[in-house]
Amino acid sequence: MQTKRTVFHSRILPYFLLAPQLIITLIFFVWPAAQAIRQSFLRQDPFGLKETFVWFANYTRLLDDPDYLNALGATFVFSVGVTLLSMSLSLMFAVAVNRVLRSGRFYTTLLVWPYAVAPAAAGLLWWFMFNPSVGIIPYFLSFLGYEWNHRLHTGDAMVLIIIAAAWKQISYNFLFFVAGLQSVPQSLSEAAAIDGAGPFKRFWTVIFPLLSPTTFFLAVINITYAMFDTFGIVDATTSGGPSQSTNILVYKVYADGFIGLNLGPSAAQSVILMLIVIALTVVQFRWIERKVQY
Amino acid sequence: MASIDVENVGKIYTGGVRAVTDIKLNIADGEFIVLVGPSGCGKSTLLRMIAGLETISEGEVKIGSRVVNNIEPADRDIAMVFQNYALYPHMTVYNNLAYGLKNRGTPKAEIDARVAEAARMLEITQYLERKPRALSGGQRQRVAMGRAIVRKPAAFLFDEPLSNLDAKLRVSMRGEIKRLQRRLGTTSIYVTHDQLEAMTLADRLVVLNGGRIEQIGAPLEVYHAPASTFVASFIGSPAMNLVKGELHGDRLAIGPAMIGLNGFAPTSGAVTVGVRAEDMRIAAPDEDALPFRLEYTEELGAQRLIHGLIGDQQITVAVSPEIVLSPEMRIAVDAKRLHFFAADTGKRLPGNVPAEAKLAPAEPVV
């Protein structure tokens, strides 16, 4: 394969040209990560005067901590919930837009808007709508005989953050699904129609399998989003409550580290999160390119 | 097996664009019909209306004795071969062939038998476990045909199935389609823009132009007695020469030249005269002839095409490569080989129809 290759006569110049990017990466990514790893092996005294090296004590303690295990469980429920909800809704919207010929562009534009809303604002929006005293949704739910209160009911709180987080992600998924659907040739669906498959069967046996690369990619992206990018939503709606039920990992790092000022365990948590990101990235690169092709 | 009747069918797309106008076509059981015309002539639209992929705006389509206007494509008992093959890329060849049968609840043993039979017929048995992307263009084309065959439908619909293949493969697949259709005896409608494909495959040709039928007829009939200047210029290669002329009694004036017609003149006044390249020859010295100024030649091996001017009108003559050329020549043409078309409408004028047009097609070899 032929690539464009520039030959530098000076040995320093290439490093000099790379320096801005390298410095940014080092200062803002590598250094904090290294700090977190270092911190996770240390224990500080309450006044911050002395640090003791404690080996893996922070980690072992975490794994014995029921609150942490609870957070792991909550994160699992939350990320699976967000991924399923936002992906199924956006796939539905994408299929609908793909069928509309004339105003597809208009709907697409509207459906992309939520993506531009900041997480905290999105959280606030849903917090208002679901507010047990003044919110419109609890008001309607009360007619159905359901008393919504995410401040008291752990299930309600989890549903609330799942909806708020999924809502924001719909736009992103939607765009990918629309692009994916448009790349499936019309004639395949026509051939399937002649082959006696009804619209549902056509979708599930021909179109959906052809979308699998998109679906898999989005699944990884959505899990990553739900696990790491939802701090604002949780903070604005439930702040991890009630009784720890929505205290997902990324929120617990913040709560333990910055509210509880318990730096060692908080750092250990962020290292575990880092490992999860690394794992997801590996999955992304390894399998997306190869496995899910037809 | 079934006959197909297209009764006064028209298609108007949303927005009022008219694609097809008043098509009337009766296709006998087992017949091979080719719809041919330039792009945008409505041939694919007509085929898709018969398939049920487009709604029918006007008129009726009958398959067998059943009006199918409001019947789903799946229930019309037809199979279609698409231009891009439309194979399901995530399924093996076997599953591609079996998909339509599975959807119809065919028992597993019968699916196996039918797929095996179709695969044997098309010589794709060794590829049954492969995915389409692991096949060559010609093999994919066979799979697409196989998918149509396994269903044993009342009719095959072909939408330019060979246009994605290279020239050599196209010729061999053409022969194969013809043989297969004869063997199965299934009514077929085949859409193409390639007049050679149309000529070689069709029992009857339907020439379409601007959404209307220009002519329906056996290939030789259409070739030797084109119904209009459009058909004359579309069917046959090189295209029929069409020149402006004027009839004076029994004589025809083309530009400054004048030739006798031996009683073949259908009318008088201005006409469009059609003459095929192979129907002209270099004139003997004492013959009635047209002065021809040579511009350039094309070598075809067995033939040589010479392009030039009669007066100021461009024509092409096919001559044997042995003939010695000169810049100025005299071209003779048999009067009964001339085609006359109305100068204004382009319609064929009643008159002589060459005997070849009535020849029965060669006996089908099964």
Q: For the residues shown, what is the average pLDDT of chain A?
A: 83
Strand order of the largest sheet of chain B: 6-7-8-3-9-10
Morphology of chain B: elongated
Average the pLDDT over all residues of chain B and give the rounded result.
Answer: 88
The parts of chain B where pLDDT drops under 50 for at least 5 residues are none
- Major sheet of chain A: size, sense and barrel closure? 2 strands, antiparallel
Number of domains of chain A: 1
Question: What is the CATH superfamily classification of chain A?
Answer: MetI-like
SS element count, helices of chain A:
13
CATH topology tier name of the largest domain in chain B: Rossmann fold
User: Judging by the overall fold, what is the CATH architecture of the largest domain in chain B?
Assistant: 3-Layer(aba) Sandwich
What structural class do the secondary elements of chain A suggest? mainly alpha
Strand content of chain A: under 5%
Quickly count the domains of chain B. Answer: 2
Intertermini distance of chain A: 26 Å
Helix % of chain B is 10-25%
Largest interface: A-B, 19 and 24 residues
Q: Alpha-carbon distance between the termini of chain B?
A: 18 Å
Query: Treating each run of at least 4 consecutive H or I residues as one helix, how many helices of chain B?
Result: 8
Query: Using only CA atoms, what is the Rg of chain B?
Result: 24 Å
Helix fraction of chain A by DSSP (H/I, runs of at least 4):
over 70%
